[in-house]
Amino acid sequence: MAGKNNNRLGRIDEELKKEISYIINYDLKNPNVTGLISVTKAKITPDLKYAKVYVSILNSKNIKTTFANLKKSAGFIRSEVAKRINLRITPELVFVLDDSMEYGEKIDKILQEIIPTKNSQDEK
Predict the structure, then answer these.
(1) What total of structural domains would you count in the chain?
(2) Residue 121 host element (H or E)
(3) What is the mean pLDDT of the chain?
């Protein structure tokens, strides 16, 4: 029985991820939420009361301001989720900043700085 429940939670996680991502990018009209915001993961608790929503923020004017305003918009996002996903209880959304993409971007920049210098040395 536990396997069935895990599958169901996994499906809800995917559905939440998709819908919240859409809502943030198309329906949220908060001028203080800037940049490219992607929902990297959503994880609902087994009792369906809470959902951790991991977001990555790139190219934002101010990541802290954007994240704070995203958290302030949680009620609006939750009410939109309630309209789109048919759940008995619409979970309370808890936003978590996922900086793994930002970290990956930093690594890419570092690598780009290192690699050209290697190539120019090889030519000598």
Answers:
(1) 1
(2) helix 100-123
(3) 88
